[in-house]
Amino acid sequence: MAPKPHRLLLLLPFFFLIFCCVTRLQYPQPEFLPSFRHDFYHRDTRITYYELGQGDPIIFLHGFGGASYLWRHVYPSFQKDHRIFLIDLKGFGLSDRPRDGHYSVDDQAEIVKSFILHKNLKNITLIGHSLGGAVALFTYFKVTARIKALVLLNSAGFPESMPKFLKILRIPIFNNFFTAIIPTRLAVNRILKKSFYNDEKITKDLVSTYAFYNSLPGSAYAARKTAEQIVPDNIYEILRNLAEITVPVFLVWGYEDEVIPLAYGLRLHHAIPGSQLVSLKQCGHIPPEEKPSETVEKLAGFLNPPDRRRHKHKP
Known about the structure:
The chain contains twelve helices and eight strands. The chain has 315 residues and is of the alpha/beta class. α10 links the parallel β7 and β8. The longest helix has 19 residues, at 5-23.
């Protein structure tokens, strides 16, 4: 005898729970530079980083929900002449996700500062994407004398530029619900589709990789706390300080970015004296993923230029 429809309805929550659990598990860990992976401790929090190459240091900082894996197509072009450091921000990648409530941009910058002092690094080029761009800016003001240049890709900075998914995560009544109910793979896929201009470049392996990082224990908590604290109380004071930056600053932006539109890149360009801005056509929020070759070309042109004169925005 076939089960009655109302009995099937009673089983739907059970099947949905199973569906959510299954989609949160069994993501393969990417084989990303295992021989160059190290750990650094900041106030008992383990921070994973990758070190290779030699020369003046470059520190790469990924964005929200990301990992050092983001830079896999970029760093190889610079490791011959530079000492490369890829840092997994606290709460992301393979770094710890402690339930300590300290996930602000300033907290992340304190960790990067501590890392720089621990390694006694000088003449540093800081390269940050999205959230990592904001962390790079904060780090600059903490260790100004050690920074040689800043590179910001589709960088966070202005509070009005906050992506919608972060605005949702900042609302207490919603953040616990969404991070608990929405399957990790589905959430990652939706965010990548919002972040890419060309959805055809979003592969199953790419979704699985970022789903792995974002399914590690404590990831939902870290994402919520990062979203809640992403705008500092003194944000406008900080923005005024951008005019005090004295090192060369290079801004790279996806022309079709819907997460942090190019208009905010132009605002950042005008706020930082002497900065340069280039945009990549047919590219969304994540140039190192969507346009890796073009990203490397632009970075190489900045890191090894005949001069660093201010120029207008170039497409």
